[in-house]
Amino acid sequence: MPYADIAPLFTNSKTSSNQTIMNKIIYLAGLTLLSVLPAAAQQTAPDSTATLKDQTLSDVTVTARRASVRSLSGAINGKDILRDELFKAACCNLGESFVNNPAVDVNYSDAATGAKQVKLLGLSGTYVQMLTENLPNFRGAALPYGLGYVPGSWMKSLQVSKGNSSVKNGYEAMAGQINVEYLKPEDPEGVTLNLYGSTMGKFEANADGNIHINGNKNLSTGILAHFENNWSKHDGNGDGFQDDPRVRQYNLQNRWYWKSGSYMLHAGLSLLKEDRTSGQVDHHGSMTAGMTPYRINIGTNRYEAYMKNAFILDPAHGTNIALMGNVSMHQQDASYGIKDYYVNEKTAYASLIFETNFTDEHNLSAGLSLNHDYLHQSLTLPTSAVPANYGNLYPLTRGIESETTPGAYVQYTYNLHNKLIAMAGLRIDHSNVYGTFATPRFHLKWVPTDFLTLRLSAGKGYRSPHALAENNYLMASGRRLIIDKLNQEAAWNYGASFAFLIPIAQKMLKLNAEYYYTDFLSQTVIDYDTNPQEIHVTNLDGKSYSHTFQIDASYPLFKGLELTVAYRYNLVKTTYGGRLMWKPLQSRYKGLLTASYKTPLGVWQFDATLALNGGGRMPEPYTLATGNLSWERNYKAYGQVNAQITRYFRNFSLYLGGENLTNFKQKNPIIGYQNPWDNSFEPTMVYGPIQGAMAYVGIRLNLGKHQQ
Question: How far is the C-alpha of 308 from the C-alpha of 38, rounded, in Å?
Fold first, then answer.
């Protein structure tokens, strides 16, 4: 853990002189929720010492705001996205936080369950390492719906990095890394509320509050609470299936902070309960007479706990030692038509880190880690309930997957006045399933002039697949699902980026150009193409790679108005059944234009985003009895527009917006919707939005909390 990341925790914060009744409620709730845990220090975002500073004179508040998006300061290529940027859209959860991000896409995995996946460098979310405050999270069974487990109002910032990351966080990041920083218990005291409602029948309520106990800035606790309910059975395309599942979620997190001398700790618990239902709308004309409606029901209970401890041994040389870890239990009980799937996943992670600066130029970090995954899962298909035309599409499956991986790493960083930063790291890990493997990574940052920054990276990544748990949405398909014995995935990633600062008309144009290449040595492949009656999850037999090129530019056209334009091209190919083919359901390019304007007094803010998503390949179709193809071989480009207006008041703000205002909807996202009990039923071929235009309104209330 870098000393620079720990130091901001010593910063003094204002405390209220009077402890309110709300403070007592938060304190008592925190004591009830918190178990006996060793706890830990919090890693904060890079450059986190640059904070918003408010000075209040009577009724006049003068505010100096920091940039809402900024580059990470080290050798790794990435962006630090702050709350101001997140609030430019509804940002109901993590999955909706990338509307203005040209590098990250979030797409539906299927048209029935509401599962979503993030895509980075043209690769699916399984190759993007998800972290919550620098601890690995949302693995395995949590992956399909994990983007909805982090409410937007809980997030303090996001760090998105591309390519391989530091070896400190493990061996998994192949395409990139997304780290979520939550609101901190040691932040200034107060309570904030957020209420949201949409025309699609979705309602959300969020609250966060924290207190400094007995006025002691070194001991504090916080509560994060979330409730959402989507009660609508909306069917805008008339296929008889809900466009979006009905979701009811309760989410609660309690966090603690304590500092004593050179020791700091953070700890917390979180509880989540979610029920989602989807499927056919009752008594719809497309339902076959005498057939039972096709239903999907997914119930999830998730429990998490984390701890972080940090000891500052020598502040002058940044010498510190940190012990951090988290545990989770994820229980999911689901039914997809007549398929019943149950999974109970337990994960544990621990990391011991030592770091020191020999001089201002030389830094050494070394550590040990332990990762454990345990999955108990079963899938049943009662033969007595199988319709005659359904066949024996899915066998009875039960199993336990267990993997324990201890590891060690060392990383050296050379920093010459922030003009030249070279970081080289090596991990050695041993899996009881896959054996011993090495993970080398290298990053270089060079600033030859004030207007140019060059970054280069190269490294290797690994991941252990859990095919059924990570892709459980595939069970909504009527095809036969075949899963082979899978190998550990491995890939090399190489990247280069150039960042330019160009003065134009007394303003600064920010221009970035980057290229990344990912070459898979071993990969889990989901094959839709070889057999139209099957979905085959198998090992790569041939080549698989991704080339991604992106260029983006930002410019303040005039005071208060910032424009960003971006273009990204993806060339992603994989071998399916002996043929090297474009990856299906992956847009080959994306164009993005965002505009953000804030009035001089900061009372009104207007944000708009125009996205053009390029066309791509559909999985290989099959020939119907009529001689026609079951679907088109390719899909065309489509555009989307999102917009939001925010009105700021002294202690609250109102926002009104719309998403997908072009009203583009994928035509027939569910193949074979007329008979979901047939093996031609296929809801997983989704490349674009399922819902049409949607409007929303919300309010954010600030009850005594100082802005940050």
Answer: 7
- d(CA 269, CA 34) in angstroms, rounded, equals 6
CA-to-CA distance for 371 and 484, rounded, in angstroms? 24
pLDDT score, position 641: 97
Q: What are phi and psi of 167, to 5 degrees?
A: -70, -10
Report the domain count for the chain: 1
Q: Tens digit of pLDDT for each residue in 671-699?
A: 989 889 888 899 999 999 998 999 999 99
CATH number of residue 336's parent domain: 2.40.170.20
- Hey, what are 565's tokens? 């334009």
254: helix, strand or coil: strand
Sign of the dihedral defined by the CA atoms of residues 189, 598, 606, 652, in that order? positive
Structural tokens at position 285: 């004309």
pTM for the complete prediction? 0.88
Q: Give yes or no for a contact between 442 and 457, defined as CB atoms under 8 angstroms apart.
A: yes
Q: Is residue 708 a part of any domain in this protein?
A: no
Spatial distance between the Cα atoms of 702 and 708, rounded to a whole number of angstroms = 12
DSSP letter (8 states) at residue 503: E
Residue 629, token pair as written in the block: 């193809």
Nearest to 526 by CA among 539, 514, 515: 539
Pick 42 or 212 by higher pLDDT: 212
Sign of the dihedral defined by the CA atoms of residues 533, 536, 542, 548, in that order: positive
Choose among 523, 530, 515, 532: nearest CA to 567. Answer: 515
Q: Characterize the bridge pairing of strands 339-357 and 507-522.
A: unpaired
d(CA 220, CA 259): 9
Tokens at 246, concatenated: 């009905």
Contact between 642 and 99 under an 8 Å Cβ cutoff? The reply is yes
Residue pair 570/616 in contact (Cβ under 8 Å)? The answer is: no
Three-class HEC string of 263-296: EEEEEEEEEEEEEEEEEECCCCCCCCCCCCCCEE
**Number of other CB atoms surrounding residue 568 within 10 Å:** 22
> How many Å from the N-terminal Cα to the C-terminal Cα in the chain?
24
**Which token pair is 609?**
């985003």
Q: Which residues contact 218 (CB under 8 A, 6 or more apart)?
A: 258, 259, 260
- Both structure tokens of 601: 């007094």
> Residue 219 carries which side chain, given as an amino acid letter?
L
Cα distance between residue 516 and residue 505, in whole Å? 33
**Parent domain of 315:** 3-703
